[in-house]
Amino acid sequence: MTMALLRFERVGKSYRRGGGETVPGVRDIDLEVRDREAVGIFGPSGAGKSTLARLAIGFERPDRGRVRFRHRDLAELGAEELWSLRRSIQIVWQDPAVYLSPYQSAVSSVAEPLEVFRIGSREERVRRAHDLMDLVELPPSARDRRPYELSGGQCQRVAIARALAPGPRLLVCDEALASLDLPQQVRMVELLARLRDELALSLLFISHDRAVARALCDRLCRMCEGRIEAAGGDDDGERGGCSAPA
Ligand code: ADP
User: Fold this and answer.
1) Buried/exposed 88-107: b ≥16 CB within 10 Å, e otherwise
2) Which residues, 6 or more positions from 68, have their beta carbon under 8 angstroms from its beta carbon?
3) To test the ligand 1 pocket, which listed residue (21, 23, 172) has its Cβ within 8 A of the most ligand atoms?
4) Which residue among 3, 98, 164, 234 is buried most deeply as judged by most CB within 10 Å?
5) What pLDDT does residue 9 have?
6) Residue 120 near ligand 1, beta carbon < 6 Å
7) Residue 235 pLDDT greater than 90, yes or no
8) Using a 6 Å cutoff on CB, does residue 12 contact ligand 1?
9) Residue 49, ligand 1, Cβ within 6 A
10) What does the pLDDT read at residue 1?
11) Rounded CA gap, 157 and 151, in Å?
């Protein structure tokens, strides 16, 4: 039995809207992502998937329950431990054009986390960034381009290389393929499957599209109205009366 890398224990998180109304983001989440495992979360818009992603990387704290990484409660980590956690869990968001700087070349976007985490000398960082870009199958001609000079798929590869730079154990993908067309999504699923294998990564793969999550993951969980409704077997997510929230 492999070790639990990430574990949600009865996690709840709600938001307060104007007028004092409380909106549940996620409710009563029990979830485990084991070492080298790929877990897919799918469900309609508003189901709580992004809230789950933000809780997994420690961007948000639960109101109830615990999120643990390697048995440690994220809410109890000191500044230094949080810093090293940031290396171990990385995230890829939906739209790389929004979070890759328009002023930065691809290679400097990929090298930047290495600088932030003080990994290697300047020369080593550039060399490592080139290796990472080869790993995600970006051609050398893409290295000095800025996001607006790259295709959507190439931008997302830059974002993946950047996320891999600090050497994470867990990669969270929050709708990471949603802005790509179908052939690009297929290629990206192949890439993520290969990276997972070669780098012994765990994946928490979030998608509104069950088919995409299914193509990549060992296990699927369906989310609806903040809860995980079904998990496990092959027909997961096909049962249960989940209607899209208004
Ligand atoms: P999904 O990613 O599945 O579309 P989200 O996690 O974005 O779902 O949202 C779940 C619920 O939490 C929704 O009702 C949404 O409106 C609410 N929500 C999420 N983030 C916030 C926030 N920062 N402030 C207020 N409400 C939020």
Assistant:
1) bbbbbbbebeeebeeebbbb
2) 4, 6, 7, 9, 74
3) 23
4) 164
5) 97
6) no
7) no
8) no
9) yes
10) 56
11) 10
